[in-house]
Design brief:
523 residues; alpha/beta; 18 helices; 15% strand; globular
């Protein structure tokens, strides 16, 4: 069987290469593709954006797939709907399947569009494999757990949920090759997904809803040996790559597992001529002692950890976000990491329901105390299916889904006492507010300008094209991810006295997916 996957990017790096870096690949369809290939099927991928949406019909004509699989988060669903309509209008005989976080959380809404023959609710590896087997046998699909199927007579078959996959090691390593034609910088830092699920219930994230979609343990971790084997395979395929981002909601979810993982990473690094450095996320918990964990991370050649502060207001964290650590917990964790030679990035949110300017001043103050090596600042976006989305509706902060344009880079809520204009200005000026007196003013003003530019798709695209031409004339390639922009700004200006120590993600525009949860492991 021939399966075609469709992915989209609302803010593409370019129409031809929509993904700027390898960390942008979607793990869900990568794992499904790998499983299908292992079972003898063929797969392909198309990454669309608004400018290339019209090409979908030609891609389907050329590849002639038996199954067309779409994946979407809420903010990409508009593009997916239009793509599916083009496919169905031109090739009505093609079986279409939609998966991803949006399909999982709003399956009935998606099915009502009449564009998809089936909706995958939850993890998609084995449901898709069963679907392919039934189609290959000439049967109309039926009785496949996790799938809601529209029958030929228009009726709907709702199948039981499949338990969460417990042994993640049984899956093949994700298919990265299918992404390479769509990535502008294929030698950039890759991510490795080391676990699925999150034990916490932050109100801005969908994990609390996702864990209810299937029975079984929601938080699962790959074995440290399996993770190490994937990293070794990546190193063998590309000997020059030097850093891996370990994708997991929090590295500290299981302390014994994390320590064993560090031992495995140290073991494989000993065999590399050029050792790999690592980075990961850490969720701080109340009164936790991170001495042992951070010592192990440093010994395993971790370069950095990203820590979620989110808001410096303990009231906002406690009453709005359901995150109950104290500011001192954050500060102690940062100090401990620094004692062990680890760099630290802080995740921050602005524009939260109930937030006032004084709350955000506390966010600035905690950042000023910690002086993170970089920060990542996102504007809160209310995703359907999250608790805070319902809160926003209840408080009349919006009357329906918010505009997804440049999500998390521009304010969408007019909060009482904290207007969109105020939120936008504080987002733009955050670098100066945090680092004033500690970093060169010229550097901080440049970061302010980048924050403004990268909150507008057109301005961001113009800036990328200008910088590409600038470096092309000098015989060099250009990457516009914030860490590269920051480093080259210092280089161009001759600020060699300020050490370039890795991804200084100081609000230069591409905020991380993880600041409001990451569901990229879903279909």
């Amino acid at each position: 069987m021939n399966v075609l996957f469709i992915h989209s990017e609302q803010d593409p790096y370019s129409p031809e290469k929509p993904l700027e870096i390898l960390e942008r690949i979607q793990f869900g369809i990568s794992y499904i593709s790998a499983l299908l290939k292992r079972e003898g099927h063929e797969t392909g991928l198309v990454v669309l954006c608004d400018e290339t949406l019209h090409t979908i019909e030609e891609h389907v004509r050329k590849t002639d797939p038996d199954l067309v699989c779409f994946t979407s988060v809420f903010t990409e669903y508009g593009i997916m709907k239009r793509a599916a309509a083009l496919v169905k209008n031109r090739y009505p005989e093609k079986f279409t399947l939609l998966g991803g976080p949006h399909a999982t959380l709003r399956p009935d809404d998606c099915l009502a569009e009449g564009l998809f023959d089936a909706i995958c609710v939850g993890e998609g590896e084995y449901p898709t494999l069963e679907l392919v087997r039934q189609l290959a046998a000439g049967h109309y699909p039926s009785r496949i757990p996790n799938l809601i199927i529209r029958r030929p007579d228009g009726s709907v078959e709702r199948n039981e949920p499949r338990p969460f996959l417990q042994d993640l090691d049984e899956l093949p390593f994700p298919d990265r090759e299918m992404w390479m034609p769509w990535v502008a910088n294929p030698t950039s830092r890759p991510s490795v997904l080391v676990g699925r699920g999150c034990p916490f219930s932050c109100t801005y994230c969908s994990n609390h809803a996702l864990r209810r979609t299937s029975p079984g343990k929601y938080v699962r971790l790959r074995s440290p040996r399996n993770v190490a084997e994937e990293i070794s395979a990546l190193k063998q395929a590309e000997p020059n790559f030097s850093e891996v981002y370990l994708e997991v909601e929090t590295l500290g979810v299981n302390r014994d597992w994390a320590l064993e993982l560090c031992s495995e990473l140290k073991r494989i690094n000993a065999g590399f001529q050029a050792p790999i450095t690592f980075g990961a996320n850490l969720r701080v918990t109340p009164n936790a002692d991170y001495e042992e964990l951070f010592a192990a991370l440093a010994d395993a050649n971790f370069r950095f950890v990203n820590i979620g502060l989110e808001s410096g207001s303990e009231r906002i964290r406690r009453e709005v976000l359901k995150r109950r650590y104290s500011n001192q917990d954050i500060i102690r964790a940062v100090e401990t990491a620094r004692r062990h030679g680890l760099q630290v990035g802080l995740y921050n949110l602005i524009g939260l329901p109930g937030e006032k300017p004084r709350d955000f001043r506390e966010t600035i103050q905690v950042n000023r105390v910690c002086q993170p090596d970089w920060f990542l600042l996102s504007v809160f976006y209310p995703y359907p299916g999250t608790e805070l989305y319902d809160t926003c509706l209840r408080l009349d902060l919006m009357d329906g889904p918010a505009d997804p344009y440049m999500e998390r880079r521009r304010p969408v809520l007019d909060l009482p006492g904290f207007s969109k204009r105020q939120v936008g200005r504080r987002r733009d000026w955050f670098p100066l507010l945090v680092y004033r007196g500690n970093r060169p003013t010229r550097e901080l003003l440049w970061l302010v300008a980048m924050a403004k530019i990268y909150s507008n798709h057109r301005f961001a695209d113009i800036h990328r094209r200008i910088m590409e031409r600038y470096y092309a004339r000098r015989g060099r390639s250009y990457e516009s991810s914030p860490e590269i922009l920051f480093a080259r700004r210092r280089e161009v200006e001759g600020e060699d006295g300020a050490e370039i120590t890795g991804p200084d993600l100081v609000a230069a525009g591409r905020e991380t997916e993880l600041s409001q949860g990451d569901d990229r492991h879903l279909y």
